[in-house]
Amino acid sequence: MVFCQTKSQDDKIFAIATRQTCKIVVKVIDSNQNTATLFGCGIVLRGQYVATCYHVLEVLPNEKIVRIYALCMRSQAEHGPSNIIYDTIDVTRDFKLKPGQYDFSKHLYDPHDLTSDFMVFKLKKKIKPVEYQLAKEIPTYLSDTYALGNVLAGKFDTKLAPTKLLYLYHSPINEYQTADYLTFGGSADMGFSGAPLYNSAGKLLGIIQGGNDDFPGDVVSELRSGDLAAHTTADKIVQLYSQHLRIGIAIDIHYVVDRYLKGYMK
Q1: Given 2.40.10.10, 3.30.465.60, 3.80.10.10, 3.40.50.10300, which CATH number is that of 7-129?
Q2: Which 8-state DSSP code applies to residue 260?
Q3: How far apart are CA 198 and CA 124, in angstroms?
Q4: Are 183 and 248 contacting, i.e. CB atoms less than 8 angstroms apart?
């Protein structure tokens, strides 16, 4: 599949994504004093909070988290990848709630329920807030989508990753799910979890939760059993699935805002 985009599109969306996306770094230590580093992405809210996937915090029973911090990108990123400057800011899960904010200290994460795979931290140092535009229109099959790259071989590789929306469906993964999901083919590498997904106008479509290696259960079976959009058929989806090394899934941004982010974005 060929991804087509103009340089001006690329620059515009790159500038938006670098202002809104941050990198999440989780440092852990095990019972033998061995250390490890986990990576993810996040979206910065009002210059005070970072939203990401809960599973970014998953550690083994003999491991404990010793530090979580965000790498927030400054506006120099608008001038190209070579000018990106990261501010390292520690984050905390322990903060005083404001009226209307979801209490993540009581949040229950179920690895088999993707709608629960969400978390908000507070930055220990406030940064300049940025504005967001949520996509109002439902994206169509094979629409262009974009996200900011993250970790390759342990090194940050910040580049705009073009993808193609494969389908929008009402997820049947378990009986409790009510969220719409965007499934896209193209770039969805390790460390993308928590990254915002954009349309060709730079408006937010959703939050990336994982790639095909991360799906619970059998992906192809889910594709065949899902309530697929009228744009395509299950067999066509399976064909597209087989053509891509990676397929990603993102939860619809409106579901996330309605369920979790009231009070965090305004």
Answers
A1: 2.40.10.10
A2: I
A3: 27
A4: yes
pTM: 0.80
> Which pLDDT tens digit goes with each residue over 133-148?
998 876 776 778 888 8
Tokens of 147: 């996200």
In the chain, where does the domain assigned CATH 2.40.10.10 lie? 7-129, 144-257
**Sign (positive/negative) of CA torsion 218, 219, 221, 225?**
positive
Q: How far apart are CA 72 and CA 19, in angstroms?
A: 8
State residue 123's pLDDT score. 96
Do residues 194 and 51 touch, judged by C-beta distance below 8 A? yes
Other beta carbons within 10 Å of 157: 14
237 membership: H or E segment, kind and range = helix 234-243
